[in-house]
Specification:
Number of strands of chain B: 0
Radius of gyration of chain B: 22 Å
Shape of chain B: elongated
Helix content of chain B: over 70%
Largest interface: A-B, 25 and 20 residues
Number of domains of chain B: 1
Largest sheet of chain B: none
Number of helices of chain B: 12
Strand content of chain B: under 5%
Distance between the termini of chain A: 6 Å
Radius of gyration of chain A: 23 Å
Helix content of chain A: 25-40%
CATH architecture of the largest domain in chain A: 3-Layer(aba) Sandwich
CATH architecture of chain B: Orthogonal Bundle
CATH topology of the largest domain in chain A: D-Maltodextrin-Binding Protein, domain 2
Number of domains of chain A: 2
Oligomer: heterodimer
Structural class of chain A: alpha+beta
CATH topology of chain B: MetI-like fold
CATH class of the largest domain in chain A: Alpha Beta
Structural class of chain B: mainly alpha
Chain lengths: 517, 297
């Protein structure tokens, strides 16, 4: 243990140190993400990637993705030990595991907590993902360990909505009611690690949950740092100050780090789809010829070459590869500069036009955006970039302030979530039910809605395929490429499972993880 | 600018008037050869910036992804950046931004600050108190913090950067202009001007300004170096001119992400900042010596 790590341990266990003169040899896992700060430490409020990694350590759902997988077909019991559903798929009954304790002495998990959590996740005043729960007619506690969910219409994946992801995370009712707004500064869950402290812009500290129902974690504490600079993070990692760090999603970085002794680079799913959304309500993007011209101007080949083929793949459809319901059978707009210029001329812009776009300082979006900017410049579209801090970017694009939005996201791997959040008229930004529909698209509402409650899987897939084709015909957005997750860890850290994918878009640290000194 | 004889005649303390100043300059520059180095470097960098379109080997914003992160070579003298853009050409064009922002912000600061300082010194009384206390408050902020504050409020653009940096130097210029104004104000020739019924504005602009300008200009040259560093610092923390416009600070910042892969991305623009700041400091030292009465005769 280096002195820096000892220092961290001392900081974390300050109370413990005060109580006993000799510090126990703690195993502290030091992790660094690439964001400047936490978003909001409430799993129903924040959907930001820097928070998901922490939520995944602190919370459980009724069911969970097995560690290392994000296949919706493999969901397994978590807080629920078993469940049944009615033949029409409208009534689901979950039996809770007994004796699961909340962190911080908030008592045993009861059906009341689950009812409270799911109701809260569906409440648009609190939750960022409330629209996912629109089909919930009621959530009731039949007794202290039985929960019944009644749906008004079938949903594509009910289990996905009660899994350890976003709104499915179960929070302590008592803690939320007692703390109110303060909950996001002191979140209480049931996961392998419990919240200890948060320092703005610095770190979140977690400690092993001694009472975790799958057994006490082998790692005693997690110090989760916010280190926005790639170079600083890399140096700290190579100096041994970090055990696990967000990498740079670039091929040459991956290759270079893999040559370092004692370093393992994990490249895993999900692929985050980078899509250029075009606000079709503002001039000149309201002209479909202009949007087509932009689609033709962009070169996926160049973007993939820019990022590196081993960490990225091109995408053609508005729904990411591998999602249930994805299809690549959509109208295509091959890279064609002359064609783009001709379309612009036809639309009345023979000399192109200027456009302002807001973009984050974070390199994972800023860098490809600069490639996009250059590709558009080649057809005469001058994009003026307004580079702002990452959370300002998120706020401003949701206020509908940017005509072009380059957005990267991984969602629950069913076509419905992506289509609903990005392309359903209900999700249009700057409206009461807003999610992330930056393009103001509404052309596939009927198909998206119909598919959600379509019981026949084939019919459902056909509806989703039609929706994707319609979106591409209308060119609401240009799907560009998918970027896989890249994290580096020291050999000493073993996850305890094979990391192929993680719904939390970051390595999952569970009770199985070990860190040899 | 030539001052009326009435003004220069009674002034015995320090040399004014362009020929005298130039003569001093020449003499001190000759005594301090480093000043010549500063001048040559500065003029050279200015010429490079002005003739960037002729000197640049490539379009500074044209990307060629296939040639990204290439080390210095015959075709790309200082290598290429992460987008395959030519670093040499970007540094040349970046010099324009650095110089424009450096010079324009100092000019703006000089005009506003100098005017406030002369007004405060000439009028005295409550005008002096009001102006100088506000300046004191502004001076209490560290320069970079002040620049950050203004850019954060106005948003990052070239004009706003100029305003922000000018804002940080206004109180400094006001102080520098005020002190000699107070001294000059008491001179007989100013008294004579008043007796002749000249307006305050005319006295300040025509009869006081030439006598304090020398000192202000020396500090302007030194502070231009500071302004260029502030611009680079603000660009480095992402509050500079928006991409793809090349700026030295922005280039250092972008290169920083690849510092272990491609150190040339940050080193060369860093050297450019160093050279320009160095040249302005040498130049400023020479100018200061030229007007320092202790170094005369």
């Amino acid at each position: 243990m280096t002195s820096a790590r000892l220092g961290t341990a001392a900081l974390l266990g300050a109370a413990m140190l005060l109580a006993s003169p000799v510090a126990p040899a703690e195993t502290v896992l030091t992790v660094a993400s690439g964001s400047q700060d936490a978003g909001q430490l409430d799993p129903h409020v924040s959907t930001k990637s820097q928070d998901k990694i922490v939520f995944a350590m602190m919370f459980n759902g009724l069911v969970r993705f097995p560690p290392g997988s994000m296949n919706p077909g493999e969901l397994e019991p978590d807080l629920a030990e078993s469940w049944t559903s009615s033949p029409d798929g409208l009534v689901w009954t979950f039996k809770l595991r007994e004796g699961v304790q909340f962190h911080g002495g908030y008592g045993e998990v009861t059906a009341e907590d689950v009812v409270f959590s799911l109701t809260r996740a569906g409440n648009p005043e609190v939750s960022a993902v409330s629209s996912d729960y629109d089909s919930f007619e009621s959530v009731e506690a039949l007794d202290s360990d039985t929960v019944r969910i009644t749906l008004s219409k079938p949903v594509p994946s009910l289990l996905g909505l009660v899994a350890n992801y976003h709104g499915g995370n179960v929070v302590s009712k008592q803690a939320v009611e007692e703390m109110g707004e303060g909950f996001r500064l002191n979140p209480i869950g049931t996961g392998p690690f419990a919240f200890v402290g948060y320092e703005s812009g610095q770190s979140v500290q977690l400690a092993a949950n001694d009472a975790y129902f799958r057994g006490r974690p082998a790692i005693d504490a997690v110090n989760f740092l916010y280190v926005p600079s790639n170079a600083a993070r890399e140096l700290a990692f190579l100096n041994g100050e970090l055990d696990l760090a967000l990498g740079v999603r670039q091929e040459r970085w991956v290759n270079r780090m893999r040559n370092e002794p004692g370093v393992i680079v994990d490249v895993f799913g999900p692929g985050e789809l980078r899509t250029l959304h075009m606000n079709r309500m503002v001039e000149p993007l309201n002209d479909i010829r202009v949007r087509r011209a932009i689609a033709h101007a962009l070169s996926r080949e160049e973007l993939v070459a820019f990022v590196g083929a081993s960490v990225t793949q091109p995408s053609l459809s508005p729904v990411p590869n591998g999602y249930l319901g994805h299809t690549a059978e959509v109208p295509l707009y091959p890279h064609d500069i002359d064609g783009a210029k001709a379309l612009l001329a036809e639309a009345g812009y023979p000399d192109g036009f200027g456009l302002r776009a807001i973009i984050t300082q974070r390199t994972s979006l800023l860098d490809p955006m600069q490639v996009v900017q250059e590709q558009l410049r080649r057809v005469g579209i001058a994009v003026e970039l307004d580079v702002v801090e990452h959370s300002t970017f998120h706020a401003q694009i949701r206020d509908d302030l940017s005509a072009l939005v380059l957005y990267g996201a991984a969602r629950f791997p069913v076509a419905d979530t992506y289509l609903t959040q990005f392309y359903h008229s209900r999700s249009i930004v700057n409206t009461p039910t807003a999610v992330t529909n930056f393009s103001h698209c509404s052309v596939a509402d009927a198909e998206i809605d119909a598919a959600r409650s379509e019981p026949d899987p084939e019919q459902q897939a056909a509806l989703w395929a039609t929706a994707q084709a319609k979106l591409m015909t209308e060119v609401c957005a240009v799907p560009l490429f998918e970027q896989l997750q890249v994290w580096a860890r020291r050999e000493a850290l073993d996850y305890g499972f094979d990391l192929k994918a993680a719904i939390s878009v970051s390595p999952l640290i569970t009770e199985q993880a070990t860190l040899t000194q | 600018m030539t001052a009326p004889t009435l003004d220069t005649a009674p002034d015995t303390g320090r040399g004014t008037g362009a020929p005298r100043f130039l003569a001093d300059l020449l003499r001190v520059f000759n005594a301090n050869k480093l000043s010549w180095l500063g001048l040559v470097l500065f003029v050279g960098l200015c010429l490079a910036a002005v003739f960037a379109p002729l000197l640049a080997t490539h379009d500074p914003i044209d990307q060629s992804i296939l040639y990204r992160l290439r080390p210095p070579s015959d075709s790309h003298w200082l290598g290429t950046d992460s987008y395959g853009r030519d670093v040499f050409s970007r540094i040349l064009y970046g010099a324009r931004i650095s110089l424009i922002i450096g010079l324009a912000s100092i000019a703006l600061g000089l005009v506003v600050g100098g005017a406030l300082g002369i007004l405060a010194g000439y009028r005295g009384g409550w005008v002096d108190q009001a102006i100088m206390r506000v300046m004191d408050v502004l001076l209490s902020f560290p320069t970079l913090i002040m620049g950050l504050l203004v850019v954060a409020m106005l948003g990052a653009s070239m004009l706003n950067l100029i305003i922000a940096i000018a804002f940080t130097v206004v109180p400094k210029f006001a102080r520098i202009a005020r002190a000699p104004t107070i001294a000059v104000r008491e001179r007989d020739y100013i008294e004579a001007c008043r007796a002749l019924g000249y307006s305050d504005l005319r006295i300040m602009v025509v009869h006081i300004l030439p006598n304090v300008l020398g000192e202000i200009l020396v500090l302007a040259s030194l502070w231009t170096a500071t302004a260029i560093r502030i611009e680079a610092s603000l660009s480095f923390i992402g509050l500079g001119v928006a991409p793809p416009t090349p700026t030295w600070g922005g280039m250092i910042r972008e290169g920083f992400e690849y510092i272990l892969d491609a150190p040339w991305l940050s080193i060369y623009p860093g050297l450019a900042v160093l050279l320009l700041v160095f040249s302005l400091n040498l130049l400023g030292d020479g100018l200061r010596d030229a007007i320092d009465p202790k170094l005369r005769e």
